[in-house]
Amino acid sequence: MTRLVAVALLAAALTTGCSTFGKSGVAPAPPSEASTLTARGEQLARDGQPAAARDVFARVAQESTRDPVHARALHGLARLHVDPRSGLRDYRAAHAAFRRLLAEYPGSEWESEARAWDAVLTDLAARERDLAARDADVTRLRGEAAKIAADRDTELVRLRSEAAKMAADLQRLKRIDLNLERRR
């Protein structure tokens, strides 16, 4: 009986041990370096180390191999750039990463989020351009106003000088007129 229990235990152990092998009897491949790095980047982001996470995600995203792990790294990188808590907020970099995610991985699990961010960031960029144009207009108008004020001040000084001259001429003419009146 004990032999039967030992054989059953041995069979259970072998079955459990073999369950990690695929149907072909070959053990599954270990995670790729990109997968391990991306998981590390996600952990760094959760642990409040966004700069280190950004560096890891960027390293994975730069690799030439394209697979879902690279899409995940691009997504992580883009999210770090839009997260105000990360301290890495850079909407242009985020926009570029979301666009790259859409271009290189259409149909990925992050497609709808990437499209939404792309729309928001495109609108934000347009508003920033409008604001920059308005700021340039304000700066130009301030320059023109300063020139007008300077021209006005110059003209005012000229007119005051001319008025002072006329006042002096008027006084001189009055004296001449008085002198002429006295002579008559």
Question: Can you characterise this structure?
Answer:
This protein is an all-alpha fold and 184 residues long. The protein has a domain at 32-132: Serine Threonine Protein Phosphatase 5, Tetratricopeptide repeat, CATH 1.25.40. The protein is built from six helices and no strands. α2 (33-46) packs antiparallel against α3, α2 runs parallel beside α4 and α5 packs antiparallel against α6 (111-183). The longest helix has 73 residues, at 111-183.
Strand tally: 0
- Mean pLDDT over the residues: 85
What is the succession of H and E elements? HHHHHH
Q: Report the radius of gyration as a whole number of Å.
A: 40 Å
Low-confidence region ranges: 1-22
Structural class: mainly alpha
- How many separate helices? 6
Distance between the termini: 162 Å
CATH architecture of the domain at 32-132, by name, is Alpha Horseshoe
The biggest beta sheet is recorded as: none
- Indicate the percent of residues in helices: over 70%
User: Which CATH class of the domain at 32-132?
Assistant: Mainly Alpha
Gross morphology: rod-shaped
The CATH topology assignment of the domain at 32-132 is Serine Threonine Protein Phosphatase 5, Tetratricopeptide repeat
Q: What amount of the residues lies in strands? A: under 5%
Quick summary:
The chain has 184 residues and is mainly α.
What secondary-structure arrangement, pairings included, does this model have?
Layout: H1 2-18, H2 33-46, H3 50-62, H4 68-82, H5 91-104, H6 111-183
Helix pairs in contact: 2-3, 2-4, 3-4, 4-5, 5-6
